[in-house]
Amino acid sequence: MEQKRIQPLARDAMAYVLAGGRGSRLKELTDRRAKPAVHFGGKARIIDFALSNALNSGIRRIGVATQYKAHSLIRHMQRGWNFFRPERNESFDILPASQRVSETQWYEGTADAVYQNIDIIEDYGVEYMVILAGDHIYKMDYELMLQQHVDSGAQVTIGCLEVPRMEATGFGVMHVDEKDEIIAFVEKPADPPGIPGNPDMALASMGIYVFHTKFLMDLLRRDAADPTSSRDFGKDIIPYIVEHGKAVAHRFTASCVRSDFEREAYWRDVGTIDAYWQANIDLTDITPELDIYDSSWPIWTYAEITPPAKFVHDDENRRGSAISSLVSGDCIISGSTLHRSLLFTGVRANSYSRLEGAVVLPNVMIGRHAQLRNVVIDSRVVIPEGLIVGEDPELDARRFRRSENGICLITQTMIDKLEL
Protein backbone atom coordinates (compact mmCIF):
# COMPACT_ATOMS: atom_id res chain seq x y z
CA MET A 1 0.00 0.00 0.00
CA GLU A 2 1.42 3.39 -1.00
CA GLN A 3 2.33 5.60 1.94
CA LYS A 4 0.43 8.88 1.97
CA ARG A 5 2.36 12.14 2.11
CA ILE A 6 2.15 13.78 5.53
CA GLN A 7 2.30 17.35 4.21
CA PRO A 8 2.22 19.08 0.83
CA LEU A 9 5.48 19.08 -1.10
CA ALA A 10 5.11 22.84 -1.52
CA ARG A 11 5.98 23.30 2.15
CA ASP A 12 9.46 21.98 1.38
CA ALA A 13 9.90 24.00 -1.81
CA MET A 14 11.23 27.41 -2.76
CA ALA A 15 9.80 29.42 -5.63
CA TYR A 16 12.48 31.36 -7.46
CA VAL A 17 11.06 34.01 -9.79
CA LEU A 18 13.18 35.33 -12.67
CA ALA A 19 12.06 38.96 -12.93
CA GLY A 20 15.02 40.75 -14.45
CA GLY A 21 13.85 41.12 -18.03
CA ARG A 22 13.05 44.39 -19.73
CA GLY A 23 10.34 43.19 -22.11
CA SER A 24 11.44 45.46 -24.94
CA ARG A 25 8.43 44.57 -27.13
CA LEU A 26 6.29 46.61 -24.72
CA LYS A 27 8.20 49.65 -26.01
CA GLU A 28 7.85 52.77 -23.86
CA LEU A 29 5.85 50.91 -21.18
CA THR A 30 9.15 49.39 -20.05
CA ASP A 31 11.31 52.50 -20.41
CA ARG A 32 11.05 53.10 -16.66
CA ARG A 33 10.14 49.65 -15.32
CA ALA A 34 10.85 45.97 -15.88
CA LYS A 35 8.18 43.93 -17.64
CA PRO A 36 7.12 42.08 -14.44
CA ALA A 37 6.40 45.48 -12.85
CA VAL A 38 3.99 46.58 -15.59
CA HIS A 39 0.45 47.16 -14.27
CA PHE A 40 -2.25 44.63 -15.14
CA GLY A 41 -5.95 44.12 -14.52
CA GLY A 42 -6.81 47.33 -12.70
CA LYS A 43 -4.88 46.75 -9.45
CA ALA A 44 -2.09 44.22 -9.91
CA ARG A 45 1.33 44.00 -11.55
CA ILE A 46 2.28 41.19 -13.93
CA ILE A 47 4.59 39.57 -11.37
CA ASP A 48 1.72 39.21 -8.90
CA PHE A 49 0.40 36.22 -10.86
CA ALA A 50 3.53 34.08 -10.41
CA LEU A 51 3.87 35.18 -6.78
CA SER A 52 0.18 34.54 -6.04
CA ASN A 53 0.37 31.10 -7.64
CA ALA A 54 3.30 30.24 -5.37
CA LEU A 55 1.55 31.52 -2.24
CA ASN A 56 -1.78 29.89 -3.09
CA SER A 57 0.04 26.61 -3.86
CA GLY A 58 1.41 26.54 -0.31
CA ILE A 59 4.97 27.67 -1.05
CA ARG A 60 6.24 29.86 1.77
CA ARG A 61 9.79 30.54 0.64
CA ILE A 62 10.10 32.85 -2.35
CA GLY A 63 13.05 34.56 -4.00
CA VAL A 64 12.79 37.14 -6.78
CA ALA A 65 15.81 37.91 -8.97
CA THR A 66 15.69 41.44 -10.39
CA GLN A 67 17.96 43.33 -12.76
CA TYR A 68 16.62 45.76 -15.39
CA LYS A 69 15.29 49.07 -13.96
CA ALA A 70 14.09 47.28 -10.86
CA HIS A 71 13.11 50.18 -8.59
CA SER A 72 9.35 50.16 -9.18
CA LEU A 73 9.31 46.34 -9.04
CA ILE A 74 11.23 46.27 -5.75
CA ARG A 75 9.06 49.04 -4.29
CA HIS A 76 5.90 47.14 -5.25
CA MET A 77 7.14 43.93 -3.62
CA GLN A 78 8.25 45.74 -0.48
CA ARG A 79 4.78 47.27 -0.17
CA GLY A 80 2.65 44.31 -1.18
CA TRP A 81 4.66 41.20 -0.30
CA ASN A 82 6.14 42.04 3.08
CA PHE A 83 3.89 39.76 5.16
CA PHE A 84 6.13 36.66 5.26
CA ARG A 85 7.40 35.79 8.76
CA PRO A 86 10.69 33.98 9.48
CA GLU A 87 9.28 32.52 12.71
CA ARG A 88 6.76 30.62 10.58
CA ASN A 89 9.54 29.27 8.33
CA GLU A 90 8.58 31.80 5.67
CA SER A 91 10.84 34.06 3.65
CA PHE A 92 10.63 36.55 0.81
CA ASP A 93 13.99 37.58 -0.66
CA ILE A 94 14.45 40.28 -3.28
CA LEU A 95 17.70 39.44 -5.06
CA PRO A 96 18.99 42.24 -7.30
CA ALA A 97 22.03 41.57 -9.45
CA SER A 98 24.63 42.62 -6.87
CA GLN A 99 27.94 41.27 -8.17
CA ARG A 100 28.05 38.62 -5.44
CA VAL A 101 30.22 36.24 -7.50
CA SER A 102 32.36 38.75 -9.40
CA GLU A 103 32.84 42.50 -9.10
CA THR A 104 32.34 42.83 -12.86
CA GLN A 105 29.50 40.35 -13.40
CA TRP A 106 25.76 41.03 -13.47
CA TYR A 107 23.30 38.20 -14.12
CA GLU A 108 24.47 36.78 -17.44
CA GLY A 109 21.50 34.50 -18.05
CA THR A 110 18.55 32.83 -16.34
CA ALA A 111 20.69 30.04 -14.87
CA ASP A 112 23.31 32.51 -13.67
CA ALA A 113 20.58 34.48 -11.86
CA VAL A 114 20.06 31.39 -9.69
CA TYR A 115 23.74 30.38 -9.48
CA GLN A 116 24.83 33.73 -8.07
CA ASN A 117 22.49 33.20 -5.10
CA ILE A 118 23.32 29.55 -4.34
CA ASP A 119 24.49 30.35 -0.81
CA ILE A 120 21.15 32.03 0.04
CA ILE A 121 19.16 29.13 -1.41
CA GLU A 122 21.21 26.45 0.36
CA ASP A 123 20.83 28.24 3.71
CA TYR A 124 17.08 27.52 3.60
CA GLY A 125 17.63 23.78 3.13
CA VAL A 126 14.59 23.26 0.90
CA GLU A 127 14.11 19.98 -0.92
CA TYR A 128 12.69 21.37 -4.16
CA MET A 129 13.17 24.41 -6.39
CA VAL A 130 10.37 25.80 -8.55
CA ILE A 131 11.88 28.16 -11.12
CA LEU A 132 9.35 30.63 -12.53
CA ALA A 133 9.19 33.35 -15.15
CA GLY A 134 7.80 36.55 -13.65
CA ASP A 135 6.10 37.94 -16.74
CA HIS A 136 3.09 35.78 -17.63
CA ILE A 137 -0.61 35.90 -16.75
CA TYR A 138 -2.05 32.58 -15.53
CA LYS A 139 -3.32 30.66 -12.48
CA MET A 140 -1.56 27.39 -11.63
CA ASP A 141 -1.23 25.05 -8.65
CA TYR A 142 2.48 24.25 -8.43
CA GLU A 143 1.78 21.54 -5.81
CA LEU A 144 0.38 19.31 -8.57
CA MET A 145 3.52 19.84 -10.66
CA LEU A 146 5.70 19.02 -7.63
CA GLN A 147 3.76 15.81 -7.09
CA GLN A 148 4.28 14.74 -10.70
CA HIS A 149 8.00 15.56 -10.40
CA VAL A 150 8.42 13.29 -7.38
CA ASP A 151 6.18 10.48 -8.67
CA SER A 152 7.92 10.33 -12.07
CA GLY A 153 11.46 10.32 -10.69
CA ALA A 154 12.40 13.11 -13.07
CA GLN A 155 15.53 15.23 -12.66
CA VAL A 156 13.65 18.17 -14.11
CA THR A 157 9.95 18.66 -14.76
CA ILE A 158 9.06 21.35 -17.29
CA GLY A 159 5.73 23.16 -17.44
CA CYS A 160 4.32 23.01 -20.98
CA LEU A 161 1.47 24.51 -22.96
CA GLU A 162 -0.35 22.56 -25.63
CA VAL A 163 -0.42 24.86 -28.66
CA PRO A 164 -1.19 24.35 -32.37
CA ARG A 165 2.01 22.93 -33.83
CA MET A 166 2.87 25.74 -36.24
CA GLU A 167 2.17 28.37 -33.57
CA ALA A 168 4.99 26.90 -31.48
CA THR A 169 7.78 28.25 -33.70
CA GLY A 170 8.48 31.10 -31.26
CA PHE A 171 8.80 28.83 -28.19
CA GLY A 172 11.15 26.23 -26.83
CA VAL A 173 9.38 23.01 -27.84
CA MET A 174 9.44 19.61 -26.11
CA HIS A 175 9.66 16.49 -28.22
CA VAL A 176 8.12 13.85 -25.93
CA ASP A 177 7.35 10.13 -26.00
CA GLU A 178 4.07 8.48 -24.97
CA LYS A 179 4.94 8.90 -21.27
CA ASP A 180 5.70 12.63 -21.68
CA GLU A 181 9.41 12.00 -21.14
CA ILE A 182 11.34 14.57 -23.14
CA ILE A 183 13.38 13.15 -26.01
CA ALA A 184 14.61 16.49 -27.32
CA PHE A 185 14.31 20.17 -26.50
CA VAL A 186 14.23 22.41 -29.57
CA GLU A 187 14.50 26.21 -29.32
CA LYS A 188 12.18 28.07 -31.74
CA PRO A 189 12.03 25.30 -34.37
CA ALA A 190 10.84 25.98 -37.93
CA ASP A 191 9.07 22.59 -37.92
CA PRO A 192 8.01 21.84 -34.33
CA PRO A 193 7.58 18.19 -33.30
CA GLY A 194 4.00 17.12 -32.63
CA ILE A 195 2.60 15.38 -29.55
CA PRO A 196 2.30 11.57 -29.80
CA GLY A 197 -1.33 10.78 -30.57
CA ASN A 198 -2.04 14.45 -31.31
CA PRO A 199 0.35 15.43 -34.11
CA ASP A 200 -1.30 18.80 -34.85
CA MET A 201 -0.35 20.09 -31.38
CA ALA A 202 3.03 20.76 -29.80
CA LEU A 203 4.28 21.19 -26.23
CA ALA A 204 5.77 24.65 -25.70
CA SER A 205 7.85 25.53 -22.64
CA MET A 206 6.26 27.91 -20.10
CA GLY A 207 9.63 28.70 -18.52
CA ILE A 208 8.58 26.80 -15.36
CA TYR A 209 10.99 24.16 -14.02
CA VAL A 210 10.95 21.90 -10.95
CA PHE A 211 14.19 20.40 -9.62
CA HIS A 212 15.46 18.66 -6.53
CA THR A 213 17.54 21.43 -4.98
CA LYS A 214 20.79 19.50 -4.58
CA PHE A 215 20.68 18.28 -8.17
CA LEU A 216 20.10 21.81 -9.45
CA MET A 217 22.90 23.30 -7.37
CA ASP A 218 25.35 20.66 -8.63
CA LEU A 219 24.22 21.31 -12.19
CA LEU A 220 24.60 25.09 -11.85
CA ARG A 221 28.12 24.72 -10.48
CA ARG A 222 29.05 22.48 -13.42
CA ASP A 223 27.52 24.98 -15.85
CA ALA A 224 29.31 27.95 -14.24
CA ALA A 225 32.63 26.17 -14.76
CA ASP A 226 31.93 25.71 -18.49
CA PRO A 227 33.39 28.70 -20.38
CA THR A 228 31.28 27.92 -23.48
CA SER A 229 27.92 28.07 -21.64
CA SER A 230 25.55 30.99 -22.10
CA ARG A 231 24.27 30.41 -18.51
CA ASP A 232 20.69 29.91 -19.64
CA PHE A 233 18.11 27.31 -18.61
CA GLY A 234 16.60 26.94 -22.07
CA LYS A 235 19.87 26.94 -24.00
CA ASP A 236 22.17 25.06 -21.63
CA ILE A 237 20.68 23.48 -18.49
CA ILE A 238 17.59 21.80 -19.95
CA PRO A 239 19.29 20.38 -23.09
CA TYR A 240 22.04 18.93 -20.87
CA ILE A 241 19.50 17.09 -18.69
CA VAL A 242 17.55 15.87 -21.72
CA GLU A 243 20.75 14.39 -23.13
CA HIS A 244 22.24 12.97 -19.93
CA GLY A 245 19.31 12.42 -17.55
CA LYS A 246 15.54 12.31 -17.25
CA ALA A 247 13.35 15.29 -18.15
CA VAL A 248 9.55 15.08 -18.04
CA ALA A 249 6.90 17.45 -19.42
CA HIS A 250 4.10 18.67 -17.17
CA ARG A 251 1.02 19.78 -19.07
CA PHE A 252 -0.49 23.07 -17.91
CA THR A 253 -3.99 21.65 -18.21
CA ALA A 254 -3.15 19.24 -15.36
CA SER A 255 -2.58 22.05 -12.84
CA CYS A 256 -4.32 25.11 -14.26
CA VAL A 257 -6.64 26.65 -11.67
CA ARG A 258 -10.09 27.39 -13.04
CA SER A 259 -13.22 28.73 -11.43
CA ASP A 260 -16.69 27.60 -12.50
CA PHE A 261 -16.71 30.45 -15.02
CA GLU A 262 -13.45 29.60 -16.78
CA ARG A 263 -13.90 27.16 -19.65
CA GLU A 264 -10.33 26.96 -21.00
CA ALA A 265 -6.90 26.86 -19.42
CA TYR A 266 -5.79 30.52 -19.46
CA TRP A 267 -2.17 31.57 -20.07
CA ARG A 268 -0.99 34.77 -21.73
CA ASP A 269 2.36 36.29 -22.56
CA VAL A 270 1.44 39.98 -22.56
CA GLY A 271 4.77 40.89 -24.12
CA THR A 272 3.53 43.13 -26.93
CA ILE A 273 1.35 46.24 -26.85
CA ASP A 274 -1.39 44.38 -28.74
CA ALA A 275 -1.32 41.35 -26.41
CA TYR A 276 -1.18 43.58 -23.32
CA TRP A 277 -4.14 45.68 -24.47
CA GLN A 278 -6.16 42.61 -25.46
CA ALA A 279 -5.62 40.74 -22.18
CA ASN A 280 -6.70 43.77 -20.15
CA ILE A 281 -9.70 44.57 -22.35
CA ASP A 282 -10.77 40.90 -22.27
CA LEU A 283 -11.43 41.37 -18.55
CA THR A 284 -14.36 43.65 -19.46
CA ASP A 285 -16.27 40.75 -21.10
CA ILE A 286 -19.43 39.59 -19.36
CA THR A 287 -17.75 36.23 -18.66
CA PRO A 288 -14.02 36.81 -19.18
CA GLU A 289 -11.67 33.93 -19.95
CA LEU A 290 -9.65 34.89 -16.84
CA ASP A 291 -11.67 35.06 -13.61
CA ILE A 292 -9.96 37.59 -11.33
CA TYR A 293 -12.99 37.50 -9.01
CA ASP A 294 -12.24 33.92 -7.89
CA SER A 295 -11.81 34.28 -4.10
CA SER A 296 -10.55 30.70 -3.78
CA TRP A 297 -7.40 31.63 -5.75
CA PRO A 298 -6.86 35.35 -5.10
CA ILE A 299 -4.32 37.46 -6.96
CA TRP A 300 -2.42 39.08 -4.12
CA THR A 301 -0.98 42.54 -4.66
CA TYR A 302 -0.28 45.84 -2.95
CA ALA A 303 -3.68 46.89 -1.65
CA GLU A 304 -3.73 50.68 -1.72
CA ILE A 305 -6.06 52.45 0.69
CA THR A 306 -8.29 54.49 -1.59
CA PRO A 307 -11.78 55.98 -1.58
CA PRO A 308 -14.40 54.34 -3.80
CA ALA A 309 -14.77 55.18 -7.47
CA LYS A 310 -17.15 58.07 -8.07
CA PHE A 311 -19.48 58.90 -11.00
CA VAL A 312 -20.90 62.40 -11.20
CA HIS A 313 -23.15 64.57 -13.43
CA ASP A 314 -26.37 63.49 -15.08
CA ASP A 315 -26.87 66.02 -17.85
CA GLU A 316 -27.40 65.28 -21.54
CA ASN A 317 -23.96 64.57 -23.12
CA ARG A 318 -22.38 65.05 -19.69
CA ARG A 319 -23.16 61.91 -17.76
CA GLY A 320 -20.62 60.02 -15.64
CA SER A 321 -21.12 56.44 -16.84
CA ALA A 322 -19.25 53.21 -17.52
CA ILE A 323 -20.53 50.32 -19.64
CA SER A 324 -18.75 46.95 -19.72
CA SER A 325 -15.81 48.52 -17.92
CA LEU A 326 -13.62 48.01 -14.85
CA VAL A 327 -13.08 51.11 -12.71
CA SER A 328 -10.65 50.99 -9.79
CA GLY A 329 -10.70 52.88 -6.50
CA ASP A 330 -10.03 56.62 -6.35
CA CYS A 331 -11.28 57.14 -9.92
CA ILE A 332 -13.64 60.03 -10.60
CA ILE A 333 -15.70 59.77 -13.76
CA SER A 334 -16.90 63.35 -14.01
CA GLY A 335 -19.34 63.69 -16.87
CA SER A 336 -17.30 61.23 -18.94
CA THR A 337 -18.48 58.13 -20.83
CA LEU A 338 -16.58 54.83 -20.67
CA HIS A 339 -17.23 51.82 -22.86
CA ARG A 340 -15.30 48.54 -22.68
CA SER A 341 -12.43 50.20 -20.82
CA LEU A 342 -10.25 49.41 -17.82
CA LEU A 343 -9.15 52.16 -15.45
CA PHE A 344 -6.46 51.70 -12.82
CA THR A 345 -6.37 53.54 -9.50
CA GLY A 346 -6.65 57.32 -9.35
CA VAL A 347 -7.80 58.16 -12.88
CA ARG A 348 -9.72 61.40 -13.46
CA ALA A 349 -11.92 61.49 -16.57
CA ASN A 350 -13.36 64.96 -17.08
CA SER A 351 -16.58 66.18 -18.67
CA TYR A 352 -17.58 65.40 -22.26
CA SER A 353 -14.66 62.99 -22.73
CA ARG A 354 -15.28 59.53 -24.16
CA LEU A 355 -13.15 56.41 -23.73
CA GLU A 356 -13.69 53.25 -25.74
CA GLY A 357 -11.31 50.29 -25.56
CA ALA A 358 -9.02 52.25 -23.24
CA VAL A 359 -6.50 50.75 -20.81
CA VAL A 360 -5.64 53.64 -18.50
CA LEU A 361 -2.81 53.17 -16.01
CA PRO A 362 -2.78 54.83 -12.55
CA ASN A 363 -3.16 58.54 -11.88
CA VAL A 364 -3.96 59.66 -15.42
CA MET A 365 -5.82 62.93 -15.96
CA ILE A 366 -8.10 63.01 -19.02
CA GLY A 367 -9.05 66.47 -20.18
CA ARG A 368 -12.49 67.64 -21.26
CA HIS A 369 -13.78 66.65 -24.71
CA ALA A 370 -10.99 64.08 -25.24
CA GLN A 371 -12.06 61.20 -27.50
CA LEU A 372 -9.86 58.15 -26.99
CA ARG A 373 -10.37 54.81 -28.72
CA ASN A 374 -8.19 51.67 -28.53
CA VAL A 375 -5.42 53.16 -26.40
CA VAL A 376 -3.00 52.25 -23.64
CA ILE A 377 -2.17 55.32 -21.53
CA ASP A 378 0.93 55.14 -19.32
CA SER A 379 0.73 56.20 -15.68
CA ARG A 380 0.59 59.88 -14.68
CA VAL A 381 -0.10 61.10 -18.21
CA VAL A 382 -2.11 64.32 -18.57
CA ILE A 383 -4.34 64.07 -21.65
CA PRO A 384 -4.99 67.59 -23.01
CA GLU A 385 -8.47 68.88 -23.63
CA GLY A 386 -9.95 67.91 -26.98
CA LEU A 387 -7.33 65.26 -27.90
CA ILE A 388 -8.71 62.76 -30.42
CA VAL A 389 -7.05 59.36 -30.81
CA GLY A 390 -8.36 56.40 -32.78
CA GLU A 391 -9.95 58.11 -35.78
CA ASP A 392 -7.00 59.03 -38.03
CA PRO A 393 -4.44 56.16 -38.25
CA GLU A 394 -1.77 58.23 -40.02
CA LEU A 395 -1.99 61.09 -37.54
CA ASP A 396 -1.97 58.65 -34.61
CA ALA A 397 1.15 56.92 -35.96
CA ARG A 398 3.00 60.24 -36.24
CA ARG A 399 2.16 61.31 -32.70
CA PHE A 400 2.08 58.08 -30.70
CA ARG A 401 3.30 54.49 -30.72
CA ARG A 402 0.72 52.77 -32.94
CA SER A 403 0.79 48.96 -33.04
CA GLU A 404 0.11 46.61 -35.94
CA ASN A 405 -3.46 46.17 -34.73
CA GLY A 406 -4.07 49.89 -34.33
CA ILE A 407 -3.57 50.20 -30.57
CA CYS A 408 -1.97 53.51 -29.57
CA LEU A 409 0.42 53.68 -26.63
CA ILE A 410 0.45 57.18 -25.13
CA THR A 411 3.15 58.46 -22.76
CA GLN A 412 3.72 61.88 -21.24
CA THR A 413 6.81 62.39 -23.40
CA MET A 414 4.66 61.92 -26.51
CA ILE A 415 2.06 64.36 -25.17
CA ASP A 416 4.73 66.96 -24.43
CA LYS A 417 5.82 66.87 -28.09
CA LEU A 418 2.36 67.58 -29.44
CA GLU A 419 1.67 70.91 -31.15
CA LEU A 420 -1.85 71.58 -30.03
UniProtKB/TrEMBL annotation:
Kindly state which reaction or reactions the protein catalyses.
alpha-D-glucose 1-phosphate + ATP + H(+) = ADP-alpha-D-glucose + diphosphate
> What is the enzyme's main class?
transferase
The record's keywords, sorted A to Z, are:
ATP-binding, Carbohydrate metabolism, Glycogen biosynthesis, Glycogen metabolism, Nucleotide-binding, Nucleotidyltransferase, Transferase
- What InterPro entries is this protein classified in? ADP-Glc_PPase (IPR011831), ADP_Glu_pyroP_CS (IPR005836), GlgC_bac (IPR023049), GlmU/GlgC-like_hexapep (IPR056818), NTP_transferase_dom (IPR005835), Nucleotide-diphossugar_trans (IPR029044), Trimer_LpxA-like_sf (IPR011004)
Name the Gene Ontology biological process terms.
glycogen biosynthetic process
The record's CDD domains line, in alphabetical order, gives: ADP_Glucose_PP, LbH_G1P_AT_C
Per the record, the coiled-coil ranges are: none
Q: Which residues form the Nucleotidyl transferase domain?
A: 16-284
- Sum up the protein's function in the record's words: Involved in the biosynthesis of ADP-glucose, a building block required for the elongation reactions to produce glycogen. Catalyzes the reaction between ATP and alpha-D-glucose 1-phosphate (G1P) to produce pyrophosphate and ADP-Glc.
Per UniProt, subunit arrangement is: Homotetramer.
Family to which this protein belongs: Belongs to the bacterial/plant glucose-1-phosphate adenylyltransferase family.
Q: What is this protein called?
A: Glucose-1-phosphate adenylyltransferase
Protein source organism: Shinella fusca
Its taxonomic placement starts with: Bacteria, Pseudomonadati, Pseudomonadota, Alphaproteobacteria, Hyphomicrobiales
